[in-house]
Amino acid sequence: MKKKRCVIPSGLLLLLVLISGVVLAGPPVAYDGWTIGPGTIDGQAFAAGVIDTSASCNAPGISCRTLAQGDGFLQEEINDGSRTFFRVILTEQGAMGDPSLSGANAELSFIAETYTPFATTGDTACSGQAAQDCQGLAAKHVVRDLSEGFETTALIQRNFAKSNATDLDGMYNIDISQTLDITDSTGLAFRDSFAYRNWTSWECTGGGGSFTCSNTLPVIGYELRSSQTVYTGIGEKQAFSHIASAGYKGRQAGGFFMSEPVRSVNGQLTLDGTTVPWNRTDDINTTWVGANTMSNFAFQSVQNTTTSSSASQSQLDGSLLDPFAWDLDAFGGQPTF
């Protein structure tokens, strides 16, 4: 099938993310539980653009009711037996494809999928529930330029979407990832990737029917990964990687907010004879650069900004272009030249 190019201004994308909200740690149904293609709306047949959610609406304990539907648009009511949600799905008019496919296999250039609970803290539906279980938002937004290898995904979750999290990674507030992979006619390429996730403390506090809810609570932990590779000639390239993290992750445990450090253990990194140690919650980062464009050059630094300690190492015309040292628990998988 022919894939259409979708260009959305960055300001509009930011606005869509800000007003729509949230990644669902415990959704009534999973994201991407739908397809789009030929179908009928109000008796009128469409060759494409009709959203079909039967894959998720036929799940055990789930019932759905269509509220509004159009070409590339669907609003429906979802009930999981105890709660009611509005789900809104938006994609391109005349689109066909599977929203779960990504990267080179992607079929859709734009996706917005949003959940909101049909209840507030004063409603009977919230009786006996904490405020954070009745309020909130959950959404997934994807924008792609299929012809240029560009893809960005934004997941944001507030209140109920976080309170349903059963694991530390699930109770994050925002999760953004972006990739760009361009190859020109000569075979030279430019690759760039970015990922950021943060955690905030519990949005609603209190008990006994009296709750205070806030959307401005501070970030208690984060993880950031950024990398870039530029091919400057046959067999020549420059590579860059920056990784940083700090603080705590959060989750619900027995109805209460719990937090644990982003890193499971304390660690350290030694560069050029200087060792930089860190605790599980310290703000640490490492930056690495490798290049063979003119001569083999490598540089790496590590900083613990919490304790104001740092170290670095570099070499020119050396054989090692990968990072000089690494810590898998703190930084995840090691980049390679």
Salient structural properties:
flat, two-stranded antiparallel sheet, 337 residues, 14-stranded antiparallel sheet, disordered N terminus, 5 helices
Q: Count of helical segments? A: 5
The total tally of domains equals 2
Q: Secondary-structure element sequence?
A: HEEHEEEEHEEHEEEEEEEEEEEEH
Evaluate the radius of gyration.
23 Å
Number of strands: 20
Major sheet characteristics = 14 strands, antiparallel
- What is the average of the pLDDT values? 83
| Residue runs with pLDDT of under 50 for 5 or more positions | 1-25
Distance between the termini: 36 Å
Strand content: over 45%
Task: Name the assembly state.
Answer: single chain
Helical fraction equals: under 10%
- What class, by secondary structure content? mainly beta
Overall morphology:
flat
Q: What is the secondary structure topology, with strand pairs?
A:
Layout: H1 10-20, E1 35-41, E2 44-52, H2 54-57, E3 63-70, E4 73-79, E5 84-91, E6 110-117, H3 131-134, E7 136-145, E8 150-159, H4 160-163, E9 174-183, E10 189-200, E11 204-207, E12 210-213, E13 219-233, E14 236-253, E15 256-261, E16 267-271, E17 274-278, E18 284-291, E19 297-304, E20 309-316, H5 328-331
Structure, explained:
It is a single chain. With 337 residues, the chain is mostly beta strands. The protein has two domains: 1-147, no CATH class; 165-337, no CATH class. It has helices at 10-20, 54-57, 131-134, 160-163, 328-331, and strands spanning 35-41, 44-52, 63-70, 73-79, 84-91, 110-117, 136-145, 150-159, 174-183, 189-200, 204-207, 210-213, 219-233, 236-253, 256-261, 267-271, 274-278, 284-291, 297-304, 309-316. The longest helix has 11 residues, at 10-20. The protein starts with 9 loop residues before the first helix and ends in a 6-residue tail after the last helix. Mean pLDDT is 83; it is low at 1-25.
